[in-house]
Every structure is written in structure tokens, then in C-alpha cells.
Specification:
Structural class: alpha/beta
CATH class: Alpha Beta
Number of domains: 1
Strand content: 15-25%
CATH topology: Rossmann fold
Shape: globular
CATH superfamily: HUPs
Oligomer: single chain
CATH architecture: 3-Layer(aba) Sandwich
Distance between the termini: 21 Å
């Protein structure tokens, strides 16, 4: 896909700049674009990728714990696993390590926590694709991460 390995030293310090890249994924087209950028940067720099998928299930809070809620949580977890597997399929470099992380919670909060816990140098994420009223009401995960992260953030649209 990208033949840059033999030219690593000419990429303006990217070799030493990024060692640990976090890539949040929700299976959206914007997330897939971000994954491709992260793979390119990781190949250029030799960085390790941490792929995180967040299941946001706060809408079930307060509901009685029964089979339907349990099954819904299982479906959300399976979807997260599928998102991470799809990311792995984009990786054509067997030497590039991708660590999978699945967490429950608010996406922006979880992304920031993982970035801190894993000592991340760069977060590469897709924009939400939301606009207008939806963005005003729910906010943008990317906006929250950009404004709160302690490391560099690259947002792909």
C-alpha cells in the first residue's frame, strides 16, 4: 500500500516523534479514513497502534437488568470486536503491532483515559460527521478530545 519503509529518515522527524498512536474506531467511514492515516504514520515511524472501541450504553442505566439488556450489551460488545477486526484487515504489515482495547462509557472520556493510561503520543481519529442541531445537542467526540487531550490529535474528515 505505502512503500515508505526505506525512506523513514526523510519524513521530517516523524520517525522519532510518534511511538504510540491511539486510534478510536466506531466503524464509521470517518473512522476508517483515520485508520488509514494512522497505519501510514505508524509504518513511517515504527509506532505501535492502540485501537480503542467504546461501547456507549448509558441509555440502559436505570433499566432493570434482564435478558434484553444483557443481550443488548453483548451485541454492542460484538460490534466493537467487529470494528477492531476490520481495522486489523486494513493492516498489510505483519510487523506493525495493533493492540485492541474495548471499554464501556462516554467515548470522549474513555479515549482521553486510554491516551493517558497508555502514554499515547498521537491520537488519530475521524470527525463525527454531525452538524447543526445534532452537534449542538450531543457535541462532538472529536471536539472534546481535541480540547482536552494532553497529546497531539489529528482529526480526519
Amino acid at each position: 500500500m505505502y512503500n515508505i519503509v526505506k525512506y523513514k529518515s526523510t519524513y521530517f522527524g516523524v520517525l522519532t516523534m510518534y511511538k504510540r498512536i491511539l486510534v478510536p474506531t466506531d466503524g464509521s467511514e470517518f473512522a476508517k479514513k483515520a485508520q488509514k492515516h494512522a497505519l501510514f504514520l505508524a509504518k513511517a515511524s515504527g509506532a505501535e497502534i492502540f485501537a480503542v472501541s467504546v461501547t456507549e450504553n448509558n441509555f440502559v442505566n436505570g433499566l432493570p437488568l434482564d435478558d434484553e439488556v444483557y443481550q443488548l450489551n453483548q451485541i454492542l460488545k460484538e460490534r466493537s470486536e467487529e470494528n477492531l477486526k476490520e481495522f486489523d484487515e486494513l493492516n498489510d504489515n505483519a510487523d506493525l503491532k495493533i493492540t485492541h482495547i474495548i471499554r464501556e462509557g462516554s467515548p470522549a472520556k474513555v479515549i482521553l483515559e486510554v491516551a493517558k493510561d497508555e502514554d499515547i503520543d498521537l491520537i488519530v481519529m475521524g470527525s463525527s460527521g454531525k452538524s447543526g442541531f445534532d452537534r449542538f445537542i450531543m457535541g462532538s467526540v472529536a471536539d472534546k478530545v481535541v480540547n482536552s487531550a494532553k497529546c497531539a490529535v489529528l482529526v480526519i474528515h
